[in-house]
Amino acid sequence: MKKPDIQQLKDIVNNSNQIVFFTGAGVSVASGIPDFRSMGGLYDEISKDGQSPEYLLSIDHLHDNKESFINFYHERLLIADKKPNIVHQWIAQLENQQKSLGVITQNIDGLHEDAGSHNIDELHGTLNRFYCINCYEEYSKSYVMTHHLKYCEKCGNVIRPDIVLYGEMLNQKTVFKALDKIQHADTVIVLGSSLVVQPAAGFVSEFKGDNLVIINRDATPYDHTASLVIHDDMTSVIEEIVNSNS
User: Fold this and answer.
1) Domain total for the chain?
2) Is residue 246 part of a domain?
3) Are 88 and 117 in contact (CB under 8 A)?
4) Taking a C-beta distance cutoff of 8 angstroms, is the pair 173, 154 a contact?
5) Span 59-99, pLDDT tens digits
6) Which is more confident, 77 or 214?
7) Quick check: is 156 in a domain?
8) 231 an active-site residue?
9) Do residues 13 and 244 make contact, with C-beta atoms less than 8 angstroms apart?
10) Phi and psi (nearest 5°) for 180?
């Protein structure tokens, strides 16, 4: 890790007042949640069951076999022991200090909310909320897990996580809120995203502000347009920033 890069990141953060964070799977991986597509991640793990991960995470699976869909998300998606890491906490702290407009995330784990962030645009939804597919009664993840809840207590129909399944459209209200954030930002900091998944990655191309910062282990298609690129362990970078400010 190059000290000039750390100093430049500190300077950018200190001189910005409308930061927007854009986070991808790398931020979740740092909390012990497997990346969907990486080797040894969720994709590889559930591919062994004979059905594609895309199908198991699809609206078709829910329609075709509700019991199978329910069992799948209870067994594979509901993770109780994962906690926010230093990256989530740093993002929440800067929002609370009114240095940030909030965070746009591709992740569904709800850890930004758990860390104390409030202005969150969850492009693919969140596992922190569930709802009945019939009467839309809402339930929290903790309630669903504690009661091993599969069916609505109000009407008896299936409850599902409030995530965007394959075959479903992104929530347009969330998309417009995220675009508005990007367009009003003076700095965008990308953390743990390859910036190749569409349409989420296309948000970065809408940024017209002063500084685009990309912190990711691997190169991204937007590296050549960024003010600062750090190809290093994300948590180590943020620990360095946090420790230097304490």
Assistant:
1) 1
2) yes
3) yes
4) no
5) 999 999 999 999 989 988 887 678 999 999 999 999 999 99
6) 214
7) no
8) no
9) no
10) -65, -40
pTM score, two decimals?
A: 0.91
Tell me whether residue 134 is in a domain.
no
Q: What does the buried/exposed string (b/e) look like for 178-197 if buried means 16 or more CB atoms within 10 Å of the residue's CB?
A: beebbeebbbbbbbbbbbeb
Residue found by looking up tokens 């390859």 in the block: 194
Say which DSSP state 178 is in.
H
What does the pLDDT read at residue 44? 52
Point out the catalytic residue in the list 61, 74, 124, 231: 124
**Owning domain of residue 108:** 1-33+84-124+164-246
CATH (domain of 229):
3.40.50.1220
CA atoms within 13 A on the CB side of 90: 25
> In this structure, is residue 227 part of a structural domain?
yes
Q: Name the pairing type of β-strands 120-122 and 125-132.
A: unpaired
In this model, does residue 219 exceed pLDDT 90?
Answer: yes
| Mean per-residue pLDDT, 104-113 | 95
Q: How far apart are the first and last CA of the chain?
A: 19
Alpha carbon distances (Å) from 114 to 34, 56, 227: 18, 26, 30
